[in-house]
Amino acid sequence: MLSEQKCEACSIDAVALNKGERDTLLLELSDWHIIEREGIPQLEKVYKFKNYKQAWAFSNKVSELAEDEFHHPSILLEWGKVTVTWWSHSIKGLHKNDFICASSCDGFVENE
What we know:
Layout (H helix, E strand, L loop, with lengths): L18 H8 L6 E5 L2 E9 L3 H18 L4 E5 L2 E6 L9 H15 L2
Antiparallel strand pairs: 1-2, 2-4, 3-4
Helix pairs in contact: 2-3
């Protein structure tokens, strides 16, 4: 399970996941979607909250995860809503780490 895994350091020769690998890992996540921006597949989810303060607190947890894993997503914080987008910049695509971090984000919501 993704929720039980930790990120691994991406080596210089790391390869992006292919579509089949991405689709298989996506089955382990809830409400995440693979989108493409500028030809780069990215993993994205919108979280909804009752107010800005809850959304902000969630954003801080995602930021702490990013620093701990040295893997940084795009985080869009709005009133009652946070959009999190993971992808691996160095390989211009998705790595298993992106799915592990996405699963961790879901855990922050489940544990509240």
